[in-house]
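writing this on my phone so excuse typos. first protein, seq and then structure
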Amino acid sequence: MILATTGVDRVDALVIWCGAVVAITGTLAIAWRATRSLRRIGGKVEDFVDDWQGTETRPGVPALPGVMSRLGGIESRLANVEHELHPNSGVSLRDAVDRVDQRTRRITPDDT
């Protein structure tokens, strides 16, 4: 490929350098645009990891517990609810309902 020249060495060198700068800048812009989706995915992965592990207290932002801590709390609350649904030591909600049912049967006639 034969390149046209102006005959002035400094102008020819300037044209070559300008072309190189444009080529490098264009390559960097294309690379930046191509990695945009990767950066976006990386940010989402970082958000997921923060949600999973929890975050420490920051100025103006309270600490958030991680998924495993929250699941432990849910299991504890669920165990308390299950305790109330089954007859046990006489202090559960189920025991109280059974006592009320027995008393109601004693004071009202059976309609069946």
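second protein below, same order as before
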Amino acid sequence: MLGKTYLTKQASLLLEFAKTTSDSELSAKLVSKAADLKSQADPLPDRDQGLRAPDVTAPDVTLGIGPDRQTGS
């Protein structure tokens, strides 16, 4: 699923393109598509999720602990 930030940015770019074109039909289509993207983005949470699944934790790099290092002495 696409994130809210991505969809909002794409809608914004479509509106910018719509403002720059002199073709009124194209402008109307771009505005319509921007509205579609915005309606998809509205129900999504404000913060996009990362690429990791929620139950996956990253290694603690601040302590130098990771899959290729052993802890303890």
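Helices lie at 4-20, 24-41. thats all i got for now
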